[in-house]
């Protein structure tokens, strides 16, 4: 079973800085990622993801920044919850309307 290891933001920032500053010392970006990831204790793919996110967040690469993605996720969750509440209210209104029609009139 794989366990999820979380790294602090400081470790992530330092690792990304190391990749960007030592790229010229290696023959390729991947070689840089492999070298630094072994020092940090993560996989090269994880480090590549961190570098990519940092570039998007700083505006150097097109994409949705992390803060905007988090806000979109929160809004989608809220929208889903509101739709569920709306469905519950519609069913309750239909139930009570039917109960009102089935009720015997008073004399």
From TrEMBL:
Protein name: Transposase
A Pfam entry, by short name: HTH_Tnp_1
Record keywords: Coiled coil
Cross-referenced InterPro entries: Homeodomain-like_sf, Transposase_8, WH-like_DNA-bd_sf
Molecular functions per Gene Ontology: DNA binding; transposase activity
Coiled coil spans: 68-95
Biological process terms in GO annotation: DNA transposition
UniProt signal peptide: none
């Amino acid at each position: 079973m794989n366990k999820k290891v979380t790294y602090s933001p400081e470790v992530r920032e330092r690792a990304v800085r190391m990749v960007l500053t030592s790229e010229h010392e290696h023959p390729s970006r991947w070689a840089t990622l492999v070298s630094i990831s072994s020092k940090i204790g993560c996989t090269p793919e994880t480090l590549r993801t961190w570098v990519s996110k940092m570039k998007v967040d700083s505006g150097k690469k097109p994409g949705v920044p992390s803060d905007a993605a988090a806000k979109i996720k929160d809004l989608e969750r809220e929208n889903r919850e509101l739709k569920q509440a709306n469905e519950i209210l519609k069913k309750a209104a239909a139930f009570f309307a039917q109960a009102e029609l089935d009720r015997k009139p008073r004399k």
